[in-house]
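Dear colleagues,

For the upcoming journal club I promised to circulate an example of a predicted protein-ligand complex. I picked one with flavin mononucleotide because it came up in last month's discussion. The inputs are reproduced below in full, followed by the predicted structure.
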Amino acid sequence: MEFYDVVKTRRSIRSYGADPVPEASLGRVLEAARVAPSGHNRQLWKFYVVRDAEKRRRVAEACRGQTWIAKAPVVIVAVGWKIPFNRGGYMGEMSFMMDVSIVFTHLVLAARAEGLGTCWIGDFENDKVREALGLPEDQHVVAVTPLGYPDKQGFTASTGRKPLSEIAEEV
Ligand SMILES: Cc1cc2nc3c(=O)[nH]c(=O)nc-3n(C[C@H](O)[C@H](O)[C@H](O)COP(=O)(O)O)c2cc1C
């Protein structure tokens, strides 16, 4: 798919069919994430690929009861961790939030290019997601997404965005 078509037709998909995610597609999606930039090239991230139905159910439950997430055949949980110093700006101990957000953007766009739906999930309880997957305490969940083929909902162009004239200006 052409890059701008990918960007324009990526939507939050909240309805999934049961068709499995092809291994090759998943591999390309994760590879697109792997090459993302990060501060100092630290790559303070890890992706957990959740296929097990019970674990998916528990992760969805930890996303404040957004149970529809578990309908997707795969759920991806992205974590990052702190660094023990602060260089100022966003190069400090919480810089993983920035880095994981970038990498997750690569992931959701690559998924769209594969015809796969995602929905960036930020409404979750960190401890409960960690518990569901048995993750170490120093790994902080930054984002969760279901991954699968859209069911009823299609990839339609984004709506409800501010006009360019409001968000970009020459100074
Ligand atoms: C940081 C972040 C957190 C979000 N959390 C949720 C969430 O918990 N549940 C949900 O259904 N959508 C969530 N979304 C999706 C947004 O609602 C969605 O991106 C926005 O309404 C624009 O719609 P679109 O993605 O279809 O273009 C989140 C998106 C972002 C970027």
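Two points we might discuss: The domain at 3-150 is CATH 3.40.109.10 (NADH Oxidase). The chain has one domain: 3-150.

See you all on Thursday,
B. R.
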